[in-house]
Amino acid sequence: MQRMGIHPDHFTFSSVLHACATLAALEEGKCMHEGIIRHGLLSDIFVRNGLVNMYAKCGSLEDARNVFDEMLERDVVSWSSMIAGYAQNGHFEEALKLFKQMQWTGVKPNSVTFSSVLSACANLVALEHGREVHEDTIRSGFQSDIFAANALIDMYAKCLSIDDARKVFDRIPEKDVVSWNSMIAGYGQTGDIVESLKLFQEMPFRDQVSWNLMITGYLQNGHVSEALDLFKIMPEQNVVTWNAIITGYSQSGDHDEALKVFRQMQLTDAKPNSITFASVLSACSNLAAFQRGREVHENIIRHGFQFDLLVESSLVDMYAKCGSIKDSHKAFDKMPQKNLVSWNALIVGCAMHGCGKEAIQRFQQMQHSGVKPDHVTFIGVLSACCHAGLVDDGWEYFDRMSQVYDVRPTVEHYGCMVDLLGRAGRLDEAKDFIENMPIKPNAFVWSALLGACRIHSNIELGEWAALRLFEADPNNPGHYVLLSNIYALAGRWHDKQKLREKMKEKTVKKTPGQSWIDVNNKVYSFTVGDKSNPQTEEIYLKLDILYGQMKEIGYVPDANFVLHDVEEEQKEHILFYHSEKLAIAFGLINTSHGTSIQIVKNLRVCGDCHSATKFISKIAMREIVVRDANRFHHFRDGICSCGDYW
């Protein structure tokens, strides 16, 4: 057009800006902005509105606001475009503020304005504010507008006011598919899956979203089999459907099944997106399935998602949780852009691996990058200091988080400090710290102190902490087990028996120890003394051989970690068939020499298993990585990465 000498007018630019907005083509949109200035059309309100909309849709809110603020004249489209931009980009409070300003100017809102403002209320769970906007829609004559009504249903549902949502729904004279879908989603969110299904069956017509919402509702409420039944009979599955099934399995704890569904998806025409890969990587993380995580990474590259920020951050997290902090650092360093989630994933990963100095170095790099830390960042930094025994550094960052970064410490941060002081043996200081906390200590704080008392065999302080812990969280079996361990280590079997009787009275059951290992893309689980594995005979024979070899080079079983009042010989027998030892033996049998063995344990690894694994790593000449409830342990050549500080 330009080559032919035809000059664009306001209509031309408005159309092209709309195309740029639709495609999120920011650079092309900026070129249009320059062309508009050259052609002297910047004063045209339609062109200005197009610019605001384009910048907002492209996520460049600062540019959108600059254009908006420079407008001498604004109509409802101008205000609605800017408000929608804030709402669509997660700046919900700004959207509400701008709506107030719009009302003060006397410009009448339209259905687009109300939809955006109600979306902001929904995401902020601002029910009362949403009610006020509802009244505004009535005063403005939009109570029967389908767009405003659908937005009201969504707002009330997300604010868990499902009865109000239903009232709006019932008053719509001609409901569209969005109305039905919004109501189905609302019932699913509030757990009323029966009413959700009833509406689904009553719908005069269903689209792909309807089926996906019903499946998601089933999964969110734990009805996996019903979701799968619906999945099988629906007319067509798209990527959203597959994502719902994968995420549903993962959220219900069946991560292995989530990975199986992903493999099934790959056999169809559905193309995975960033949500798919983030969900699958999360499943790999929870299983510590390193090899499968690598395969997913290769898949990500093949599909061109290696530079997607969500996927990149998920890779950083996956590698850290699968035991390879080195690969986590590599994935992070390859990221062209990093956000708060990326930095937090790496810093928390360093903490899990006991890499205190590395966590602090990454935190300093984060500061230089201009990304502002949040409460999660400081939980990672303080945990890293805790696992590495960096007490002075921990104190420094605890003080700086509020004084320098304006991050108010939460009870989790105080708990980290108690854990830090307690692990370092500074139990009296930890007790004083708790007594001077400005907020009420919770179970996490008391559990940290009780755990430290267990490590340092301080029975008196342990009983003091346990009394308060049982008041704060009376039904958690782990707390009783901690005190039981302290009594057992001190040989106070009578007190231990009394505690066990108390647990029976309260019907509190101890969580059994369980370990998992992923071999050839299959997860195997073990409990103490487990004989359910088909290779049980080989596993026990392997352990018996290792037991003899270990004793020859200095291993002495630590019977203090058997929490039963039995003979010493029986204690040794119980010790050597703990779940992680069985998993390690299985891994040695079924993996090639020289490969790393990865184990996940649901509880904190006991002292004897920690000692035994050091010996096994030396004898077998293998790296053994154990992820327990607290952190990672990397065993190599008879040494653990934690330096026996955990």
Summarize the structure.
With 646 residues, this protein is mainly alpha-helical. Helix content is 66%, strand content 4%.
Can you walk me through this structure?
The chain is mainly alpha-helical and 646 residues long. The protein has 34 helices and 6 strands. Strands 2-1-3-4-5-6 form a 6-stranded mixed beta sheet, with helices on one face. The longest helix is centred in the last third of the chain and has 17 residues, at 536-552. The termini are far apart.
What overall geometry do the principal axes of the alpha carbons give?
A: elongated
- The total of beta strands comes to 6
Uncertain segments: 562-569
Q: Specify the oligomeric state.
A: single chain
Q: Using only CA atoms, what is the Rg? A: 30 Å
Largest sheet: 6 strands, mixed
Strand content: under 5%
Within the largest sheet, what's the order of strands? 2-1-3-4-5-6
Instruction: Give the helix tally.
Output: 34
Distance between the termini: 70 Å
Helix content: 55-70%
Mean pLDDT: 90
Secondary structure class reads: mainly alpha
